[in-house]
Amino acid sequence: MSIRFSFGGDEHIFAEVSEEMSLEAFFTSLSMTNAVRAASIRGVTEICPANASFQIKFDPDQIKPDDLLKELQSMEGAAAKSDASLKTRIMEVPVFYQDPWTHETLMRFRERHQDPKSTDLEYAAAVNGLGSVEEFVKAHSSQPWFVSMVGFVAGLPFLYQMVERKRQLEVPKYLRPRTDTPKLTVGHGGCFSCIYSVRGAGGYQMFGITPMPIYDPNQKVSYLQDEMCFFRPGDIVKWKPITRDEYDAALEEVEANRFEPLIRDCTFSLSDFNRDIDGTNTKLMEVLHGR
Q: By residue range, what is the domain housing residue 70?
């Protein structure tokens, strides 16, 4: 996997690890950005990892662009050989699938959708060869997802399904973006799921909504007082389908600032995962539920 570097203006170097998303590409990007951070290179002012790429911002008055490029290229070999394991967190995120708020929104924008006569979940089930919305929700929520990037909008996580590529759910984005998406919508575009951290425009299919805040710039939410963004790259997420009553109960806890997400520390090894995907996911679920 050879990294392709290119300059972005006078102050950025963009590094494309791979043209397609994979956990291998993510770990190479993570190793490279960790190495750049550890090297404390004079003139580097910002390090931004993404799904299968990363970008470095630098001050050209402190380091010449070509010198920084040589530094990055010298790290590539070591990154490729680094141990692809990670001490991270696994967490449960409740989701009210087929909720009334995203349903009302998707019905307002049907003329922008591939199939105006179906809902987003019905369309997603059909294009993935599943017989019903219930089957799709089961496929979406039964296996964990890997947070491969946080950004685009503050606090918004991109999540990559931890199953064999042939089993991954894929759904195209809307033909034209909506001008509205409810806050905390669980969306999906391509192979990525996401959670809209704020209300706004969007093009991902809408599957449901979570009551759990994931971004708090005022840092008043009990579990967001140290960091305003809940997710970090490398986190592992398990969706938990909930009913309307469970959603309302969770929302009451959120409004009283008593809601506490289920989070456990864990270790993820890419080698172990590739050797036995289902076995690794089973062990992760055991860690999550304390068995």
A: 4-81
